[in-house]
Amino acid sequence: MASERERLLAALPALLKELAASGVTELDVTAGGASLYLRQRPGVAPPVEAPGAGDGLAGGGDLSGAAEDGLTAVLAPLAGVFYGAPKPEEPPYVAPGDEIEVGQVVALVEAMKAFNEIHAEVAGTVVEVLVANGRSVTAGQPLMTVRPDPAALPAES
After folding, report:
1. Is the separation of the CB atoms in 125 and 99 below 8 Å?
2. Quick one: which of 22, 82, 114, 148 has the most CB atoms within 10 Å?
3. Residues facing 110 on adjacent strands
């Protein structure tokens, strides 16, 4: 008979697939005496391309100027409601022109009554916030564009 740990490890591929498909960023599973904690961190977002006709961004923003070479998008890791500030009466986490660092909280996405911090995956300057506060976003939707700091980019060979 398989131990609880072995059963949990055997279920890991299915759990990882479900985690990626659902947009959940963290999962804590306990089966008897065995436990597993998973945290999904999206990689550095690809450069933003101009949307085609009919792309209708749910956030109410547009990608005007986002196709400019060298810009990187901060993407929503899951579907939910976008918040640019920790509380309505507080200033936003970031605004256009602000310098940001890797790991810095730049926004929140509320999903299933949980507030998920959105962290910068690249250091640079915020060019544009693409989503209005309180608007619904989908997983993978660009939330803002960033001009990466050249010093933070990997050297090309």
Report:
1. yes
2. 82
3. 81, 115
pTM for this model (two decimals): 0.57
Residue type at position 16 = L
What is the biggest distance separating any 2 CA atoms in the chain, rounded to whole angstroms?
60
- State the residue for tokens 């956030």: 59
Domain ranges of the chain: 4-39, 72-152
Digits of tens for pLDDT over the chain (157 positions)?
Answer: 567 777 767 777 777 677 666 666 677 777 777 777 766 655 443 344 433 333 333 344 444 444 456 889 999 989 999 999 999 899 999 999 999 999 999 999 998 888 999 999 999 999 999 999 999 999 889 999 999 988 765 555 4
